[in-house]
Structures are given as C-alpha cells and as structure tokens.
Batch of 4 targets.
Target 1
Amino acid sequence: MASLLRRQLLHPVYQPIALLEDGSIYAHEALIRGPEGTAMHTPDTLLHAAELEDLNFPFESHCVLVAMTRWGGLREAGRLFLNISADALLKALKYCELDGLVALANQLGISPRMLVLEITEYERVADMDELALAVQEVRAAGMALALDDFGDGRSSLRLWSQLKPEFVKIDKYFTKGISQHGDKLKTIQALQQIAAIFGTALIAEGIETEDDLRVLHDLGIPYGQGYLLGRPAQLPRAQIEPKARVTLRDRTVAVFPEMRRTASAGSISRLAVIKAPHVTLTTTNDELARVFYEHPKLHSVAVVDATRPVAIINRFGFMNEYSKLYYREIWGHKSCMMNANAEPRVIERNHSVDDLVGILTSEDQRYLVDGFIVTQNGRYEGMGTGEQLVRSVTETRIEAARHANPLTFLPGNIPISQHIERLLASGVGFVACYADLNNFKPFNDQYGYWRGDEMIRLLAALCQAHCDPRRDFVGHVGGDDFILLYQSDNWQTQCEAIIAEFGHQAKALFDDSARQAGGIQAEDRHGVPRFFPLTTLSIGAVVVDHQEFTNAEQVASVAARAKHDAKTSDKGLHIR
C-alpha cells in the first residue's frame, strides 16, 4: 500500500445515483481502484492492505484527494459522494484537515454544498457524542452526510437518530430480491417510516434487476444505485442504463410480494379473560366455598402462590365434595389444595396460535371442564373457558386469513384491496376478474373436504400459471372465490385458458362413474336430491375505467356482479 500511495497508482471511478422518480442522474459516488490486472485492483484488497500496514488514514485521505481532483478536472455538475470512515473523519477534524478539504474543493471549483461525506465503519466509534460534534462541523462547512450500508447488522438506529443524516443507504441485502421477498419489503417500509421521522432521504443500493427496481420505485424510495442503473466507470454518466430507463418509464404497477404466513401464525392478542378472584395455598375449604357462593357464575378458581398460579379447582367437583355429609365439619378448615388440580392449563396472553391449536386438538381436554388460567408475563391475570379459547383462536385465524389464505397461501382480502387502491391511484389501465366455481358445494359434499381442497389448489395453480407475476396479481378471497387483477394485454386469452384447462383437469378429481355420467347425484341447498354437472369455472371481468371507480370496494362489487352474469353464460367468461 505504501508503494501504491507513493507512486500514485490509485485512481477513482464513479457510480451513478439516480432519482427513481424519473431516472435522472442525481449524484455519483466516488470509488477507488488500484492498478488494473493486479491483485491490488479491487477496493476490498486495497482496504485490507491499508489495514495490514496501518495506513488506513493516509489511504482514505488519498482516496478523497484523487476523487475530488479528478472530479474537479471533469467540471461535472451534480453531487459527489465521498467515502470516509468515522474514525478517519474524527482524525481529519483533529488535524484540522477538514478546512483543507473545503479549501481544496473551492480551489477545484467544487461547491462544498455538492459534497456528501458517506460515513462507513461507524460501528467502530466508541464515542458517538464525539462523532455527532464532528458532523456539526461537517454541516457548518456546507457539506451533507450519508450513512452507508444501513441494516447490515453493524448499523445503529441511535446513530441515525443522533446524526440525522441527509441520506441513508439501505444495505443491498434488503434490496436484492425484494420483488420476491415480502419480509424485505416490510423492512424497507419500516425504514421509510423512520426516514420520515428524521427527515432523511433513502438510497437503495444493489439494484440489479428490473423487477426489484420497479418495486423500489413503487414503494416511493427516492434514490437508487446499482449495476442495473450503471456500473462504476472512469467517467461520470449522463444517463442511467437503457434497461433501467425503460423500467422507470413503464407505468405498470409492481405486484408487491406478500409474506408467506399461514392463518395460525402469530399470537393471540384478544384472548378473553374473566377477572376472577383467586385463592392461595393457605385458603381453607370453607373460604373457597364462600368464594363460589359469592360468584355463582365462576366455573373454576386459580390457586396462586404470590403471583404465580400453581393449581386450579373446578367448581362442580369441589361443591360436589363440599356438600357431602360431615365434610365441612371434618375438612372445612383444611387447605383447599386437597381438591386442587396441580397441573392446570396455563396460557400466556401473547401465547402463539400454533400452541393454542395444539391444545385444542390434544387428547388432554381438561380445559373444557376446568377452563384455563391466563397469565401476563407469568403472573396471574384471570380465568378463561374452553369456549373463549376456541373463539379467540378462530378470530385470530380469520384475521390472519385476511392477509394470506391458509389453503393456497395467496394474498387475502386486505392485500387485494391494497393492490386495487394502488392501481386506481396510478391511473394505469387494468382488468379486475372474479373467478368462482360452478357446482363446487355438491362436489365438496360428495367427496369430502380433502378433495375439495385439491380442487381449490388446482384453481389457484392455474390462475398463477396464467398471470405474469411482474404485472398481474392473484388473490384468494376465500372458499372457491379468487380475484385476478390484470395489467397484461392478453388477459382475455389467459382467462379463457384458465377456464378451459380447469374444465379438463378438474375431471380427474371425480370418480369414473361421475365422469361417465357427466356429473353427480347430490342434494341441493334445500335438501332435494338432483343431478349436478361436473364442476366448471366462471370468470367475470371488468375493464376498469378510473373515472367510474374511486375505491377498491366499488371495483370488487362490480366484478362480483360480472361473475354472477358469467355463471349464467355458456362460455364461462363475461366481460362487463
């Protein structure tokens, strides 16, 4: 490294940072390279060599110097991002080199206001307050600040809050493949909320595909950087890459990925609790009886040691014993623990739904009689009944299904509505299709839920197969109802193909006798036996006029009416 610095063999390259709203070049980041064709060409190798020779500060100072000198000689407009470690920034201020940086900028014809110091390796800073003071001097000199690689596991929310940088670069881990990963999308949406609080502009790093760029654009991320937009080059770019320009000019609304969560995921948030009195290890049977007399609707009582529940006493079982001849005289003053179940069912308020479903389906069904004890952080909170447990689990699963259907894992009602709203807000043309099965109930009644689920999964697979995942959205409303939101021009051909392929493949789910007869004998909704033809598919399609519709509910309502008309059509497809 010392030899490279002495012989001045390092040179800068510049990578564009684009404004994602229109694809224009907003700034360039200066990066350093060593002699081409050598092992010292890449920045990682250079950084490692500088560290081995204890030349970090001279190396970083030289990089800033050559990047600015070259930039000034090019007479380029726009902002220039300069990488500097937090440690090097503190040393520069200590040696008064920040004034020299400003003087050099002015000498080269670069306005300090066009410089952005991109802070790296800030996790090594032991004194954040000292760094915050250094940043004040940077701003006083007219320069802006950026945090690099935020979210890579080393970054600090405290630092973001304390420094309030003008820019934060999102680490490429969260941007790479964002079009396929709902968890990454949710993470970036959370970063957007933090950025809004601190008045920070986000820059998405590592953009390499059109699909990821489209999602980041539709999320409203203001700036982007990556190979798709432009690779590092010795000369600054006037425009981003053609592929990226085409993508940003395309008005197609991105289909956001959904998190793959089942209806049993998460925790119970509204577990019903009876604020019931409790007894202690020293409570007598007579005292317990008075508790039950004073609370005639109380099904069970918890025995609590300090704040921790240790047992449960069932009302019916206890009162049956207490009413026996001479029981009060002999046992009335004894501890109530003689009637207690020392292995009660205890449920935390934020218990996972998966565990609660396991309780409902387990062989141990004592909670149906005794109920269960509810705790908060292990402390006694109250009592619950088996009925309340079933209701709480059911409500939680229904709520989760509104986000992702548990059978097909396709987006549920809430993501469907959100995507329709995004389409309406964009003004882009789209077609809303409502798909529904004909004669599905008699099929389900005849063959059972397992084969019924197979038919629904078949429909889900065909809908996905005949949709472009980058342009078209497939949602599962529930049961055998699906919503398809097409931006593809060939939507009618695709709908006709879904209907035809379903009609062919669904026959395999019927028995031979039903296939030969063309249907099955089953009871209708009124209990009257009659013949039902083989299950087919109907799709109602609505070509959305943005002047006619203002919200997702209106679109869904008209699509449902179109589906109703489709069910009376011989073709199976009705276009409104």
Target 2
Amino acid sequence: MCGIVGYIGKRNIKRWLIDGLRELEYRGYDSAGIAVMKEGEIHAYKAVGKLVNLEEKTKGFEPEGPGAGIGHTRWATHGKPTELNAHPHMGEYSYVVHNGIIENYRQIKEELEAEGVAFLSQTDTEVIVHLFEKMTKTHEEPYAAFKATIARLEGAYAVLLMSKKAPQTIFFARKGSPMIIGKNAGGEIFFASSDAPLIGEATEVAYMEEGTVGYASPEKIYAEPDALQFVPLAGDKLTAQKGGYRFFMEKEIYEQPNVIGDTMIGRVLDEGVAFEELGGDFLEGLTRIKICACGTSYHAALTGSYLFERQAKMAVNVEIASEFRYKEPLLTDDTLFVVISQSGETADTLEALRMAKAAGLKTLAICNVDNSSIVRMADATILTRAGIEKGVASTKAFATQVMVLWMLSLFFAQKRGTINAEGARREVEAMDRVPTVLKEALTVHEKCKRLSKRYLHGHGFFFIGRDIFFPLALEGALKLKEISYLHAEGYPAGEMKHGPIALADAELFTVALMPQTLLYDKIKSNVEELSARDSTILAISPLPFDLADDFVLTHAHDHPMLEFFEMMVVEQLLAMEVSIRLGNDVDMPRNLAKSVTVE
C-alpha cells in the first residue's frame, strides 16, 4: 500500500529520495518521511499530508553524498495519519521503513515494553526497529541481528532499515509486499516498491523473491536464501509524467485507444485470437473457470464471465478475493483458476492464488506488471500492456483487462469448437474497431464537462445496466464514489423493482446504460419505471430517449462490446469532471491507495 525508496551513493540523497517518493505518492499520501545517513549520523524528517509538506520541511537540508537514505510515503493502516505515526520510525540509533502489516506486532510490543522500551507511535512498524536494536545486543554482526529480527515477524512486509552500527548500509527484507533493488554503472544502489522511481536511474534491477533478506553497501549487495537475479530495466521517465493533462487519470483515459491496440498486437489475427503465452494443451481437462479479483478487476471479471459462458460455453464463477480466502471454497481439478490484478501485488488476490496453487489447480494471471508477485506465481500470465497507471481510480487497466478477457473467451471458444469460423471473424472485426471507438468516445468530453455541474448534490446515484452492462454499471458507480465521494451504487436494471426503487425521487440521479444491441427494450422499461417515480435520468445511448432529463448520445454499433467500451469512457469522463468541479484531487482520492498490498 505504502511507497518505499532507498538510495546508496554520492549524489544529493534527499533530492533523490523525494523525487523517488513523488513517483510513488499514488501508493499513499497520508504522510511522508526520509532518513539520511551521512558520516555516521542519521538525519530524519517527517510531515503529515502530501509530499509537498515534506519538501517544505527539508528545504534547508541538502546532504551531498557519499551516504545512504530511506524514504516512505504512507497509506495509514495502524494508527492515524500523524507525524508520530509517519515513517521512518526510529530507535536509539536506527531507522526503519515498512510496507505491509506485522500481524504479531502486539505480542512483540508487549515483550519490548516489559523490557523498558518506550514506543512513540501507534504503528505496527515501530516494533521492527526496537526489536532490531534488542537483537544487536545478542548478535555480534548487525546483519545477523537483522536476520533474527525478520525471523520473528509474522505477516506481510517490505522492510528497509539503516543503523549507525553499519554506516552506508541498508538492510532489506521482503515477504508478501513488493520490493525492487536497482544498480547502475556509477555504483549507485536504489530501492523502490515499483519500477517507476528507478526508470532512468538504474540500468539493472532485481525483483526480490518471497522470503528474500539481505543488505547492500557501496562494496557489496548480498541476499539470501537465493542470490538476486538482475535484469536490464527498460523504460522512459516521460511515460510516468502527465504530458500536459490536468491529472494522470485524464491522461490515462486518453491513452486507452493506444493501449488497447498494444493489448491486441500479435494476439488478434485475421481468423481469430492466439496467445503464445498459452500452450496448445492449456485447456486440456478443464471444464469450468473460477475468477478471483478485487475492486475494478472484479468488475472486469464479471464482464468476462458473460463472455466466457456465451462464447466458450464454460461455466464461470467470479469471486471477490477477500471473501474467497475465508469461505473454505470447493476447488476441483477441472477448474482453471484465473486471477486479475493491475499491480500484481494485490494481497487478497495473491493469497487466493496461493490457495489455488496449493489445491493443485491450473492457474492463469491477467496482470499489468511483469515480474510482479502474481505473475511469478501463476502457471501462465497474460500481460495487459496498459503501461504505468498512476491514477488511483483505474481506467486504462480496466479497459485492457476487459479486452484480454474478451480475447480469451474467443480463444477458448475456438479451442473448444463452440464458435464457427464466421462467428470468430465477426468477433475479430469488432475487436479491431475498439481503438477507433475509444477515440470517437472521447469527443463527448466537453458534454460531460458541461453535464457535471448538474450532478454535485442529491442523495445518491444509481448506475444501471443489463448483461455485460451491469458490471459496467458497477464500475461507473465505483469510479464516481472513489474520486467524488458521492454515494453511488451499480445495479442490474431488472433488480430496481425489488427494493432499490423505493429510493427514487427527484434527488436520486439514475445513470442508465441503454445499448441498442443488447436488451434495449428491457432496460428502457426499467428506466421508465424510475422516471415515473420522478428520478432524474441521465441516459447514455445511441437511441434518443424522451424521458431522459439529460442525454449523452453514443455512436450506433453492431456489437455490444463496442457499445460497452464507448459507454465506459463516458462514465470515466463524467466521474472525473464531477470530481474536478467538487475541487477534489482526482489522482489521489482520500483514504485510498493504488496498490492494495494489505488485507
């Protein structure tokens, strides 16, 4: 959830740490802090709120190397967002930053308090630094003390620790939370929670495996139980910048035509779909599919379930990963277990994947981040190729996940013989038109901007749709609530009469997804029921609807998925413009973070 950086080298350490944290601020922005070790002394600074507050606080601190430093931007789990709870946490002569949750921290804390250790914060992280300093009293080498400390921890963690006992050294450990180490020809060493801070800095990186523990100094990088495997790091710093847009979310909405094209390259062919990631016998023995995901990825999974059952004739069960983990699920070996995650580090989804692997199921990951934990664990992976997504409210990641699921459903249908050649060609022709449809959809931006001023009050929103447009309604409601903080719910349109319609009045806004190609008459009837109860109707459709209070005209298409992708863009733009009018930070909504690496 939180963002971690570390540096060993000769440049201005503070500046690199803050620049690195800026690349990770989407992972958490309740507070931030740095600790810099220079000439045997450690200087620490912390500030509540966004990174700009830490920058202001460190204005007079310009430490040129050689030295080392660690930094952290926080999304609060244990303890409120206060300066005392901000990382790095200190002992008498050491500092630590941590991402994850230490499940047995209360037990460790009670032991240490009984020995006279005074705690300053409410966090679980602080036990790490005090436990380490306790271990240094019984272990001759600081690294041995660090290993003994890590051995006591239960839960998920990525840890960087510095101590006066080991100048210019950073100790590191990883279990359940991501951590990357990079290096370059200049002898600099970098640490980060994701690739973004390392692009343009490190030439080689190693993605730490589960259970890695080690240390780095100017002389040596050491890790166990396995040596780190460094690979070249490609990328351009410009890919992580806003490029003239007001927000990363806006930039990422506008990137969707291009990234969808990237998702299809080499996969969508003239006569069907091919995935070189999946062997010819991949589907052998499989008769059903179970998909696990969270949040936006869950909505993509629901969309995929309609497509798989319709085209591939395979029974599909979609599970919220946090629920799946604790329900004692029935897992049979004829099931393909699919997990979907933008980051590849989503804690609940990762644990669900572990359960499936332990049960002997064949597993497939749909993910945006190569070398992430989920990618490394799954039997096979299909990368979505969305590129870096920094907006907390996911847009292009959702689009590419849905496209991969659509392609997969056709791939499976071809392998199983449940679609003929003509049907496959029709699907491919529709897929080929998606980038153009997404470009055309962006022309409604100005309309959404004007409409947004009418949707800043009221007692809530209903987003309604049928079939694949039901999960799109869920996603539209999630986008709005994430960044506007207005109450919104997604519903199957036919369910309104079974209770929710009791809320209908002039202050209830209904966003109705009314595709021409799929159950139009049915949803039209549902919307008429809401209109009769005086609900304010915003209709999104290629067909005029007289009862709509507001109307967004979409293009006429001959395939439901083309309408799906166009309406998806309308939802995204509307949510963003409502949020901007309300004065919210679209990229960094309150209480949220980009990569959910804790339960």
Target 3
Amino acid sequence: MAASAQEKMNIVIVGHVDHGKSTLVGRLLADTGSLPQGKLEQVREECARNAKPFEYAFLLDALKDERQQGITIDTARIFFKSKKREYIIIDAPGHIEFLKNMVSGAARAEAALLVIDAQEGIQENSKRHGYLLSMLGIRQVAVCVNKMDLVEYRQEVFDRIEAEYRKFLTEIGLQPRAFIPIAAREGQNLTEPSARLNWYQGPSVLAMLDLFEKAAPIDRKPLRLPVQAVYKFTESEDTRRIVAGRVESGSLSVGDRIVFLPSGKQSTVESIEVFNAPAVTSVTAGSSTGITLTEQVYVNRGDIVCKAGEPPPQVSSLLRVEIFWMGKRPMVLDRPYKLKVATAQTTVRLKAIDRVIDASNLKQTDKKEIGRHDVARCVLQTAAPVAFDLAGELEATGRFVIVDEYDIAGGGIVLEAIDDGQTGLRQNAVARDLNWDRSEIGPEERTQKYGHTPALILLAGPVGLGKKDIAKELEKALFAQGIKTYLLRMGNLLRGLDSDLEMQRLERREHLRRMGEVSHLLLDAGLVVVATASNLNDEELAELKASVSDRNVFLVQVGLLLLKNSVIDLTLDPSAAATLNSAQVMALLKSRQVFLR
C-alpha cells in the first residue's frame, strides 16, 4: 500500500476551447473530495457576490483575465489522488492562440485525456491537439466526448464522433485506449458508471485514469545529464569546479567514467554535490545535482553528460525532424533561427522540406515554407554540432524548440541523425583525447596561472584584405597584456609540417586538418592562438573545429565570407587600420571572459 500511494503519474487534459476540460477537472476534484477545505464554497460565494453562474471551471482558472474571458490561458497543475495512485493533472489551454502553452503543458505527460464537445463536434483544433500528442510521443490517450446532456445522451451522436475521430487518430499512428461519453458539469460517468449512459459499457474517467500504465522507470535508461552551468567558488580556498544540471534519465555514481558530448571529453566523477543537504554518492533521474571531476576538462552549458560504456547520444549538425510551427511568420529556408534542445542553444537553419501537412485534415501540400499551425518533416542544419537522442528512444533529449528572434515559434521531435561529413573527424578526436598522455599540469592550473582561458582566434576572409596584418597586431596586443599567445603562421606550416603536401585543392583538406591538430596542441598548452585562413567555407570550418574539439573558437570575419551556416563572432572592416581592428578583437575576448583579470 505504501508503494502504491507513492506512485505518481502526469496526465494532461487537452481539447478545443469551451469543450469542457476545466469543468471536467473541477467536477472530478469536487466529486472525489480532492479540493482544499472550503474551496468549493468559496468559489460559489464569489460567483453569488458577482451575480455570476457557478462553473466548476472556476476552481482552476485562477488568472484574472481567464475569469473575464472564460478561457484557460496558462496550464494549471492540479494534484489529485485515486485509490491506486497520485496524479498531477495538467489542464492545458485549448484556444488556437495558446497552442504553445498546450505543448509546454503536455511535454512531461505520460498519458492524456482529449475532450470533444458532443454538440459542437470535432474541430480543427481537436485534430491539431491529437497530432501534437502523437508528436510528443504520448501513446496513452482516452477521448472524452463531453456535454452528452446537451444531445440528450444519444448513443448515435457519440458513435458518429468516435468513428470519425478514431479514423483520424489511426491515420497519425495513435491508437486511443478508450472513447468515454460524459457530462462533466452534471457529473455523469466521471467517477462511476452513469445510469443516463447505460448503453456504454466501458470505464468511467476515474477508472480510465487508473488503467493507464506507468512507463518503465527512467533511471533504467542510459544516463543523460544536460549541463545547465559550471560553477567555480573562490571563497575559503574552495577549489571545487562544479558541473550542474538535471538528470533526465539514468543514474550517476561517484567513480563513474563519463563522457561529455558533443565534445567527446572524458573524466571521472569525483563527488556528487547537493546544496544544503547531506552528501550522497549517487543520484537518479529527476535529481538536480552537481558533480566534480577527477580530471579537469573544459565543459560548456549544453553539453550532455553520459556514461562511458552506455549507448551515447547522437552527434551531428544535420537533423531530420518533425516540427509543428506556431510562429507568426512562416519558417523559411536558410533564415537563421535558434534551436534549443535540452540546455543546448545554437543557430539553426531550415535546409530542406520533405513534406508539409495541414494538421487539421492531414492533407499534404507542396509548400516551400512552413506556415503557422503546419506540421512538417524537414532537415535542420545547426551552426555547431549538437548532442541529442531520437525522440522514440529518449524524449527529454529528443525534443526541441525553435526560437524566431525572441519568440518560441516551433517545436518538434528528432527523427534521424544525418551524417554531416564530420563524424569520422569527431570520432578520431574523441579517440585521441581518450588516449592523450596528459600533462601533470592540468588545464585549470594553467588558466589560473596564466590569467586566461585557451582560445583560438581565427581570422577568415578573402585573400589580400590584411588578415595577416591584423593577426600580427593582435598578437602584439595580447602579449602586451601578459597573455600567453602565439601567432600560427600558415607559411610556417607549409614550409615545415606540411612540406610534403602539394598545395592543390585536393590537399587543402589535409592542410586544414593538420592546422587543427597543431592548434589543439597549443590550446592544450593553455595558449591564446591567433591564425588566419583564406576562403574558408562552412564544411572546412566544421572540420577544423572537429579537430580542435574545443568550443573556445572565435571566428572573426574580414570582408566577405563563403560561410552561410556558421556563427560569426565579429565582423571587421578591412579598410580600417589593423590596430583598430585588433582592438575590436581584444574587446570581444574581454566580453567573452577569456581574460580572468
């Protein structure tokens, strides 16, 4: 009994506006005695004072503008208990303008109740909600046909809605667990069978909730801990460097060997840190925690921690996805957006559209853009490789959102990782770092001693625009500030390390790989490296970054570039004096906290 009482399940309730979701939940709480003492009487008295008819939905719609408009705007979270388990019921908004809120409300649900008005019938939004539940991976769905009292509890009305909507759900790969006729306001078929609906032989709503099955514990799946932040303390000689985040799946213990992706860096868990609580030696899914490492490596927000030996996340800059677009402007090819998956953020572009579907009728169109409320299967290209899972394997790291300027404009799931051409280079870099004969002087010690983090400043642009002059001035400016720096001259590489290469286009790729490996050595020594590259394209830059295997690379544009998908940190005017351009780069490095003092 104790174990049963502790079992919890998240249920989301969705449906078109005014189809009775909030009324269903409010009446369910009232009929099961789950309301706080005096809450029902308080709302009844408030309605009487304002000469307003009482509605069970008022028990949930706490926001003032929701009361005035009679619609749910934000998601309400309600705690409710049956004899079998505890529930967190999420009442999501149904109005088309608040689909984003509905998606966020449904994101962590394990099952769903979808409400349809028996009198009004199936609406476009009813279909959109069904499609979104399918995209979010919610497979346990029961459809509640509400307001049966308004159609005199006629079975033929219920049967017609069930046949039509079941056909729709089947076409999108969703098999509903049940269709339940109810009259939420009247309390019919909510907590026990209804005499008014004696032609129906299935479960009541409460019985259906208890029939939903709990998913296998997420802590049995591979570890996924997206890095939220890295904290460094200096008071009282506290030397800890704590990597913090939330364990989305799996478990983690002191002594575990871990890998940070997409960088591929490895270390071992030295301790697990808990704020204002006794020390622990292990944590499981759902825990927000911090860890320290035996071997200090540079870690960034957005990295995903996984265990060595367990199935890792995918890593690529090309993703095939299914996306639901909610932005005011359509999503168009090659326009820059921001992708957020777990805690990672990066620039992303729409590279190809496989198909666009109207979610309300499942009709496929030949559109070359993704319009508002469209569902599309498409290919996204990120500016930097990201770590992720396929949505069918791990939901938390297989879902994403797209931000257009400052607004969340889309959301979706990852269907497939596409080879972006750098997989082999990344794997080589990971193997190299795994077997690296490390110095007894760690990177943290070098950073503290030198007063700066290692960094590669890459000046890129066409030939003949003064990149070399800027690089020389920058090296002098860094050295004058006491920065341990080195100018990596391409001519020196060609005369030495690359003397065996014929400098033809076929050999350029190997030249850049070697440049990346030399840069990696200098970065491992803790230096700030300045380098130039002419006519660099996106693929070459991605390969160079894969060889360096470090995020602290700054791309500085001098003149026009051949880059379309890469993040440019700074653009310089080639007609300006080299000293002025050098000063702009110094300001960039200062703003990005490369310099500690």
Target 4
Amino acid sequence: MRERESKENKQSFMLGVMSLFIAQIVVKLLGLVYRLVITNIDGFGDEGNGIYGAGYQIYTLLLAVSSIGVPNAISKLVSEKLAVGKHEEAHEIFKTAMLLFSIIGLVLSTLLFVFSRTLANLVGNSSVQGVMIALSPAILFVSLASVIRGYFNGMYNMKATSNSQMLEQLFKSILTITFVQIIANISLIKSSWLINLLNSHNTNRTVIMAIAGNVASSVATILGFLYLHIFYLCHKKKIIANIKNSKVVYRKEKRSIIMKKILAISIPISIASIISAINRNIDTFTVVNGLKTALINCYSSIDIVTNEATRLYGILSGKIDILVGMPASLNVAFATALVPAISGAIANGDIKTAKRRITFSLRITLLIGLPCAIGMCVLAGPILNLLFPNAYSPEAAILLRLSAFTIIFTLLNQTLGGTLQGLGKVYVPAISLAIGAVIKLLLNLLLIPRLDWGILGGINGAAISSIVASCVSFIINMKATCKSIKLNLNIYQTYIKPVIVTLIVGLSSYYTHHFLIEILNQKLATILVILVAIMVDVVLLIVFKVFDKEDYTMLPYGNNIYQFLTKIKFLKA
C-alpha cells in the first residue's frame, strides 16, 4: 500500500513539474512574441522599450517584496497540515495569508502610485511616471494570486499555477499588442480626446504607447487573479467537505502567530529574488543617467540627450535582456525539478546519488548555456535583423555579442542556487547575488559614462559589468557547493567536451551562414543556420559521448533514446 502511494506521489509530482515546465515555456514564448510585435510597431521602437522597461523593472522589484516566496511559504505550511489531516488549519492559513498579503499588496500598490514621480526622477526619465501609475494596481492582485497558487500547490494541485500563468500571459500578450496598436493608429481618429490630452500635456505618443502596454499588464493580472478566484470557488465545496470529514481536532491559532510563521518562511525565500530584482534595477537607475552624462557634450539639447539615452537603454531592456533571458527559462524548469531530487537523496543519506545529480545538472546547464551563448555571439546581427526588422540598430549587435556571455554564468548560478537550496545552504545564493550586485553597480558607474573607452564604455559597459558580476557570483556559489559536498567532477566530461562541441557548432554556424547568405535572403539563411546548428549540436553530443547510460536514464524518455542509439550502433549496449 505504501509502495503504491509512493509511486502515485512521484507520478503526481512529475506531472506537476511537467505542467509548470510547459507553462514556463509558453509564458516565455508569448512574452517574446508580444515584445517583438510592439517593438516593431511604428513609433514604439527602442525609445518605447526604454520607457516600458524602466517602469516595469521597478514594479518587479516591489513584486519580489510582496509575492516572490509567498507560494512556497504557503505551500509548505499547507502541505504540512494536510499531511496529518488538519484540513481546517490549512484553510485557516490560506485565509490568514489572503488577509496579510492583501494589506501588503495594497500598501505597495499605493506607494508605487504616490511615489511614481520621485522614482521616475531617480530613473532619469520623467516619462516613466505614467508607466508606474499604470502598473500600481497589479501589485495587489499579484500578491493575492500568489497566495491562491501556494494554497493549491500545498494540495499538490499545480493546475492553479500553470493554468493561471499561461492565461495571464495570453491576456497580457493580446491586450498589450491591441492597446499599443490602438495608440499607434490614434492619429486616424479625428477629434480624439486622447489627441487633445497629448497636445494639452505636451506628451510624446511613444510615452502613451508605453503606458498603454503596462495598462494591459495590469488588466491581464486582474484577469489572472479572477481565474484563480473562480478556480478556488470551484474547489471550495470539496475543501469544506474535507474539513467536515476531518477527524483531527481543530486547534485555533491566533492570526498574528500564523502571519509570523508565513513571513518567517517567505522572507528568506524572497531575499535572493529581491536581490536579483535589485540587480536588474541597477541598469534601470544607472544606464540612462550614465549615458546622459556621457552624451551631454555630443548634443545641444537636453531633450535630445534624454531621448538618445532612453533609446539606448531600450535596446538593452527591450531586445538584449529578452534574448539573453530566454535560455534561463529552460534551465529554471530543469533546476527546479532537480532540487527535490538532490534534497531527497541527501535526506536518505545517499550522497553518491546527490553527487551524481549535481554533476549531471551542471553538465546539462553548460550544454544549454554554451550553445545559446556562442550562437547569439556569432549570429548577433542576423538574429536581431530577423526579430526586429523595423527597429534594427547597429549598437544592438555589439551589445548582444557581449551580453551573450552572461548566459553561461546566469544559468550556472541558477543550477548552483537550486543545488545549494537542496543542500540546505539557502542564504549562499543571496550572498553571492548581493556581492555581484555591488560589483555591477560600481562597474556601471565607472564604465557607462566613458564613451572614450571604446567597447568597454557607454551602453556596452552595462554588458561588461553583468559578465563580471555573474562570474563572481558563480565562483562563490561553486566554492560553497564544493565545500558542502565533495563533487567527483570529471573535468573532461563536464567541461572540456561541452566546450569542444560548442566551438564546433559556433564555427559551423559562422561558415554556414556566410555560405547561405550568398544564395538565400538573410532571414531565411538565419533560420536555416539556427536549425542546422541545433542538429549539429545533437549529433556531436552523441558522437562525443557526452552522456553515459546513467545520464540518459535521467533525461525525459532517456531509456527509449538510449535503446534507439544502441540499436543503430551509435552507442554500445
């Protein structure tokens, strides 16, 4: 009976992981699509991305305070109560959390609204004020949505999280494109009240488009919360029935005590996310101001200087950060699935399995990160021209080539962060991120204002500082991991083979693109090169025997893949 129950729990867990993985991929793809579309809308472009991105980064920082860590904290407390049949206490935790985070969310929403002008001035662009006002209601609803997700995660029901994330992003994508396009075409509407508003306030149409895009984000967030609320109401009858059927005596706790328990768990989990959000906001607060200092002698008007600085920041936030962040979404899902596997092995005293899973995860991370980094470096210009044909800028290609190298260290830090959490070293990732953030801030302040430093200065300085900061964080995390558990790393298998495979893929991509560009148009050539690079990468992984039999068993459908490769004599049985 216990064996059967254990098997069902494992299946339930894996189904939950898979649903979250699919949701994450869908969310990232939809996010990429709508950002591509609005960036290519006439009048939005890099300047619109600069305004849109600056306000959004400050918003995500407040979200890190109000909601990141909440689902895990609620999930942990609820699952502990349900495991011993305390259904009413679990529901009381949910109700208390809704009260607590409605207060926290409302306070932070109000603060963002009230201090929007002050924050916009700190960013160095007064146009960002409207964006923050548009986003301010969303903080409250994201906070409440996080509580509902955590409650159902504690019941091992991941549908609430995965479905709501996908629906919210779908609404966000459709509404953002619609709202921005309406503003772009508003000149066709005679005697529009919005045109009068623009003229009376001397507001740039690009600013209104950026605000409209963030209004769409807030509306999508509210719709996502409404879906979760309906989801809860649909399951409420069953929840009440479980409470009535529970044979465990209900012991009422003061709400203040429950709140303390929730905060005691959610705050440590949130620290790393808050620092990560602060890290992203370093660019928000330093890039535009630094570029304005650098460009002040190049232009006669301060307005022109501000617009140019905002445009360059828009390239970074609206193009580069999106592309560089895409590989991280794949690795987040993988690392998340691995954390309980590592902690479970440690809890059972199976150190050998824990070591095996850690080394395997590091290798997978490199096999995701290295090809993505070299591909974006080699094909920077063609990729940008393919995705942003109406908003292509020469500065973006250099910036992408530099920023691509952060992919490797960012992904390694994700995996090592999950590993350290599995090993019980929950504060190390936060410390490493904090040290990296200080380094990034100092380098941004030093490099961005120096246009005379060539590739190291100006907007490129933000990319250089990110590489250095993420590298330092990686060194700290790696040392802490090796100190916590002695890894039997095979240098040749873990590092050298992936690097060799990546270099071959990079060289083949470079020369294939040069060949195809002579006979095909650039866009088609770029798509074909990417497809060829993926196929070459897969073949080389097999040829160089990067995975052994035990590695294949840890991959999805790994046993089937291994049997097929042995059947066609690629691998020995």
